[in-house]
User: What shape does this take?
Amino acid sequence: MPEPLKMTTSGDREVVIERRFDASRAQVWRAISEAELMQRWMLGPPGWSMPVCTVDLRVGGRLRYEWAHEDGRVMGLTSVFKELVPDERMVATELFDEDWTGGETLVTQTLHDVDGGTLLRTHILYASQEARDGAVKVSGMSSGMEAGYARLDQMFAEGAVAA
Assistant: This one.
C-alpha cells in the first residue's frame, strides 16, 4: 500500500520528494511522461484542471502545463528535457510563467524497484536557498503533489495505466 510522499530538504537549495506506487516502473514512467495521463492525475488539490498539457518527449523537447482553477486562477509551467532514460530517469529544467519559484529549477526524477512497486524520487534544485524555502513554505507543494499522487494510485488500482 502506498504511503504519503516524503519531502526533505538537502543542501541549501534542494528538495527531495519520494513516493512509492503499487505499479511497475514502466507504468510510472508512462504516468509522468504521457500528456493524456498527466491531465488526469497531476491536478493538485480539488478545484484544479489541466486544460493544456503538451509533451515532446526527447532531449531538447519541451513540456507545457497549464492549470486552471474553478475560481479563475491559472498557472503555467514550461520544461525542457535534458536527459531521458525510459523507465529510469528524466531530467528537465522548469520555469513557471509567474516565476514564483525564484528562477529556473532543475528537476531530476528517478524510478526505483522497491517492495513490489516503484519508488519515484524527485530531486528539485532551486536557484537559491530563498527560492527553495519559499517554494516549500508558501506553495502547498507537498499537499498538492500528494493529492495528485492519490489520484494516480487510483488510476493504477483501476488498471488505467498499462505497462
Summary: Residues 6-157 form a domain with the Alpha-D-Glucose-1,6-Bisphosphate; Chain A, domain 4 fold (CATH 3.30.530.20). DSSP finds four helices and eight strands in the chain.
